Amino acid sequence: MIEGTIEEAGTPVLTIKVIGKRGEEITVEGVLDTGFDGFLSLPISLAVSLGLELIDVIHAELADGTIVEDELLFAGRAEWDGTVMEVDILLTRSQDVLIGTACLRGYQVRLDYSRNKVSIERLEGGEEVSDA
After folding, report:
1. 46 Cβ contact partners less than 8 Å away, ≥ 6 residues apart
2. Is the distance from CB of 63 to CB of 94 less than 8 angstroms?
3. Which label site among 51, 64, 79, 120 has the fewest CB atoms less than 10 Å from its CB?
């Protein structure tokens, strides 16, 4: 089970370890963002030290419909629910780390606002989180 907290403003936050291709790693707090359908989004400033491998340049659509061109997509690894897996990592100019819904396949998410807790649990027979 993965556990996190809900900040005072109501934002669900989790801790996740991100690993670069040369073994460099960082542990960061990220916002669980159900509007982001990727795995991870990292600020460029955090990602530089990881030695990530550029795999694509994409266009992304933000929640307000704005199209952002030339977003950098990198290959990396992340530890999720005790398992290290290959993930696509979007680098952005934002300062926020986002954890997207691609990480949630096969899991049940519980947001308990009365206790300010997030819990994410694999469902029996749940779909495996696929590698990027």
Report:
1. 26, 28, 97
2. no
3. 64
The number of CA neighbours under 13 Å toward the Cβ of 62 is 8
The C-alpha atoms of residue 129 and residue 110 are separated, in whole angstroms, by 18
* Percent residues over pLDDT 90 in the chain: 60
Phi, psi of 79 (to 5 degrees): -90, 120
pLDDT in tens, 112-130: 999 999 999 998 865 555 5
> DSSP letter string over 37-48?
-SSEEEEHHHHG
Q: Which domains does the chain have, with CATH numbers?
A: 2-122 (2.40.70.10)
CB contact at 8 A, 122 and 109: no
Phi-psi region of 106 (alpha: psi -120 to 50; beta: other; left: phi over 0): left
Q: How confident is the model at residue 31 (pLDDT cuts 50, 70, 90)?
A: very high
